Amino acid sequence: MFPNTALTLSGLILQFELDDVDSTNAYGECYRAVPVFLESEVVMAAANREAKPQRKRANLSPLTRRRERWAYFFISPWIIGFLAFTLIPILATLAFSFTDYNPVVPEETTFIGLRNYGTLLTDSKVGTSLMVTVRYAILAIPVTFAFGLGLALLVNNKHLLGKSGFRTLFYMPSMIPVVAGALIWAGVMNTQTGWVNLGLGLVGIKGPDWLNSTRWIYPALVLIGLWGIGNLMLTLLAGLQGVPNELYEAAEIDGANQAQQFWYITMPMISPVIFYNLTLMLIGAFKYFDLAYVLKNGTGGPVDATLFYNLNLFKNAFNYNLMGYGSALAWVLLVIVLVLTILLFSSSNRWVYYAGEGKK
Amino acid sequence: MSNITRAYYLPQRQRNLLNKVLITGIGLFILLIFLAPLGYMVTTGIKSDSQISDPDAPKFWPHSPATFEYEGAALPLYQVPLPDGTERELAALKKTRAMTQFIDPANPGAAPIEWEGNWRQLEPAYEADPQWDNFMTAWEELNFPRLFRNSLIIAGIGTFGAVTSSLFVAYGFSRFDFRGKNVLFLVLIGTIILPVQATLIPTYILYARIGWTNTFLPLIVPHFFANAYNVFLLRQYFMQIPREMDEAAEIDGASPLQTLFRVILPQSIPALTAVCLFHFFFAWNDFFTPLVYLVSRPELWPLSVGLQRFNALYGQQPNLIQAGALITLVLPVVVFFLAQQIFMQGVVFTGVEK
Prior knowledge:
The structure holds two protein chains of two kinds. Chain A has helices at 5-9, 41-51, 62-96, 115-122, 124-156, 163-171, 178-188, 195-202, 217-225, 230-241, 245-253, 258-287, 290-295, 309-319, 323-351. Chain A has a domain at 114-359: MetI-like fold. Chain A is built from 15 helices and no strands. By secondary structure, chain B is of the alpha+beta class. Helices cover 59% and strands 11% of the residues of chain B. In chain B, strands 2, 3, 4, 5, 6 and 7 form a six-stranded antiparallel sheet that branches. At the A-B interface, helix 2, helix 3, helix 5, helix 6 and helix 7 of A face helix 2, helix 5, helix 6, helix 7 and helix 9 of B.
């Protein structure tokens, strides 16, 4: 177990963040962002409590016992749901992965041991889908992150007029259903009538056939994905607003310039938010499905260029009815996601700075 | 000396103004590009097929070749360069290769103007002609009332279940001590990273066995068992409410259930509203789950699947696709703009510093 895992896992936490109250804007009010935000205090406190020696069950007072029963009553919906819809199905997925289950002929199901996993290693589609996923992630994560940070800095800039209007409007496309967004962008990237290529034409560039080129499809997907940047922008914004002003004042007295302040104060102070978003984006690449499916009607084209890992899984399980094999793919996905998460968390104490941790 | 300084450094106020103009200008520019696809959606959504394919028509707003009613016939209008050097829009009455007779729309009673030259070289005149009917066509072809109803049922009941159950679970995690609390809470938060595919196949097989596939149940029932995001958000909010109020209620003999509904609930309306909205639009926009469970029952499709299927079948009609996309996104976007007010009025919540 990595020492910091418990603390940093607590960072996966939702939180309301109050906007800077003094910024008046076009609407004369301030906008309250509702971002997902990192926070470690809660579970740190919980962990401290746990360190105390536990009283034995027999010593509990009747009142404490009664309250404990109430507690289990209140959390029982989640316990039941977790067992019924998460834990047991995950184990069942593992069990199915050792069979050749086909929903059309369920009675012919046989135990085939590790054969699905053997197929998986030699199935060229699996390799292709992993490559597609990795290629997308390598392009999408840095670009999306840079744009999100840029927007957060912009809407946090004291010179920007109508800040809250900008925040609202930059967030707004995140509310657009992904199917509608995908179809709008498919039109915008159309080679004949789409505005992207018409715009490029105005400056003398012949735009590519974005959605039918095995090379340009990736930038296209990343561009379309930028419409969902709202949460990233708002969490980073909350992070920026959480940096104490005294730090900048002190740095200014020491003669640090803007770039140095950004690099040595802002970035470390918002590193928990960066870490949180990085984790979500990386895992998100392996969960990627909707956009690729809608844009190419689930074909995975052009030439398997949008055959993301999950699309391949979906096709095997639901188009080819290979549910045993699909289960094996699902378990490999689960292992990949867990390994990535553990790698990220174990690297985090090298670059993520939690204010307050050093005091202990 | 001071004059030189003044030449180099603008006064503070002017420098601020310059910065404001510059930064706001950059912001507007980025925003314009960022939201430009919405402009494409609207302008394409109100074009006819021929307006989209006409290479000469103005690209932005829908235009059709202009015509002029003359003695019961619709005559096409052309931009005609006249001998005196001016150019006028005239209606072509009789077209031959070498000579064309034009009617002046401003003075239709006058004798036709004769113009020498090939009429094919003339630029046709266009007039704005948005096809607002497209929205009606899309509305009917996609069967929007049915799609809306299905989305509303799925998202509405699901939200009720998710918020009610999360309210209970969050209350349990925020106000009680029990064995295993920390471990259970970490497991709860850990479920955020789980890919839905890890549980998909056995759940699908189970639902198929008990006859739940091709019904709304797989899209609704699981939400009645709380989820990590909602529980966490509500728990954070509850922890801000002073415990003295619960204790006062309990001394008065209130059970924990009564405390929840009389003390906690009334104070948590903003957080509950936020959770309701998040969950409602999560369910409203969800595409994958209805795709898996409802794909073979068109009468149960929600908006997301209905729009995608429509595109798969009628991809050659970009105008109807864009009109359909617009109808689909109106509700989430409008509610988003309205809900801002709720956040602004109610949500005073900071949890970063504790």
